[in-house]
Amino acid sequence: MKKGLLLRSAIVAALGGLLFGFDTAVISGAEQTLQELYAGTYESLAAAMGNLKFVSKPSFWHGCTTASALIGTILGAWLSSKPSDTFGRRKTLSLLAVLYFVSAVGSGLAWNWWSFVIARFIGGLAVGGSSVVGPIYIAEISPAKSRGRLVALLQFNIVLGILLAFLSNYIIGTLKLGDLEWRWMFGVEAFPAAAFFLLLFGTPASPRWLMTKGREDEARSIMSRLGAEHIEKEIYDIQQSIDLEHHATREPFFCRTYLKPIMLAFLIAAFNQLSGINALLYYSARIFEMAGASADFARLQSVLVGATNLVFTMLAMAIIDHFGRKRLMLVGSIGYIISLSTVAWAFYTDRGGTVVLASFLLFIASHAFGQGAVIWVFISEIFPTRVRAKGQALGSFTHWFMCAGIAWTFPMFAEKTGAHIFAFYAGMMVLQLIWVLLMMPETKGVPLEEIQKKLGIE
Which residues of the chain have pLDDT under 50? Predict the structure, then answer.
């Protein structure tokens, strides 16, 4: 029964990941329609920018439309640590659920370009916040031996949300709804957002967060309900980690003490996006059309990409606490390099179609098995309790900042050739492989309070 509450709470918190994934990928089915719909706006904005090299291009402003949610994720990731630390992880997740709902309804009912961009921006705030608060909450309620699998539930839901977005786009596309088609693609997200908000009322507060507020008895009670095996030892270890007598609650985050986890979080987040993963997710239909597929078949291929993502995420979840975070990253890095190099070669030599699809399936499998499964688990583990929310915010901010840059610029690069940009992504993954081999520590099975000692944090 107690373990049931733990699993149920982790699943509910991870539903933020489902909305995260859905919101991230849903635009892939509508971005070409939006380009046509707002073509006049893009031309006007480009003309107003005069002779500025990039800003005066309509493709720049279409990239802005696609990246509008991502700009919100940057801000959401950066700002979410404050309410998470002040009001708690669970209450902050409830606020994010409201933002998801407002964004879905607003995007579906948008009456002009500005209203659409603002609605997507609000959704981005929720996505950025979810990428910070969700992993923290799950990590803080989970025992060390199953923490990897439970935090990876968030990634499972992210890829499930991506698959549902691709599948929803495909189904809505077959209904031939005309001008309403793109509105329904965005609007359907309101239903899971409402469910997420309601289900959060049945989850407990994070015991580690309660300890930072001096509410030890409540923390002990919740740890008992969650089935913790050595409650008093965990209470002691958490208290030592927080160490309020020696570490002021307003201790600066960017200091030598936390340099190692800061660099680890920054690099894993940056490399995650330098693989080009979100270029594929946001522009999947466009990329497959560039490779010679029809519009409808391109959407169907996107569903296949989403399904592959889900299957390999499930495989990674099953073994992450046995195989280890570092080994998954090694396997994924090698798969990245092979697949991205092949895609670049295919575009250089005009060998599209099957080669591009097969390479992208290998790419998405490599991502799901490596970076996708590891990133949120790893970042949630490497910071001590007293700065975990700030550390998670840094990693998420870096992730979404890089993501916004890639999503914004991809249409401009795609206008000329896809070969150069995919060759660049392949080169970045060679650097990731070197980083994993030389710098990345293994954190599997290590209690959170022990990891900080392993990283030299007193």
Answer: 1, 244-246, 248
